[in-house]
Fold these 2 entries.
Entry 1:
Amino acid sequence: MDMLSLSTHLPQVALAPGEVVVREGEANGGLWILLSGELQVHKGGVLVNTVTQPGALIGEVSALLGSPYGATVRATAPSVLRHAADAQALLASDPAIMRLIAVGLAERLNFVTTYLADLKHQYGEAPGIAMVSDVLVELAQRQAPAARPGSARDPDPDY
């Protein structure tokens, strides 16, 4: 099963380019599933991802952590999404949904950890890259259910 087939019961919402799906720092408890279109993800005003894959989720981290949205997501092309106004209820409704979300998050964490390790191997302790070791240690130690989202990095590094 995939997220598209598991979410057929949810209402669809059409968005025009420029419309916001979720806004960083806000919390409304919803979860979104992309059916078609293109979404851009901005964190702290920085573009971090463009989402085009049908079945991609928006708001799953917020739903799992019970925290506000960690990024602003905006449609950059006409887009159609399914919307679960109560993400907690959706997550509890079917173990297959939780498994898909867990697998997706594990894949993303594996990618980021591998990427950081590759940076460390390529650039060692070069200025600005020295923090990679700290990030890898922080990722490895975040095992507690109460792990906080965000960054522990120095906001004013010397590079």
Entry 2:
Amino acid sequence: MPWIQQIEEDAAEGLLARIYSDARRRAGRIWNIIRIQSQNPRQLRAGLGLYSAVMKTDSALQPRLRETLAVVVSRANECHY
């Protein structure tokens, strides 16, 4: 099984601490998909920005359809996210 070193919430500093704080405020917890990217907070921030741009901004696709497509692709890829 692959293993990726993660920075725990109580050890996070600077940008990562802010990202963790925002994530906890949004979801009530820090999901593993965030933790596994913790070694490079700038890349994590960029990835979250891309996700937000794709899933949260105006689009020809309604938000519910975007979420449905994300779930279908995740299932097809056997991904929990």
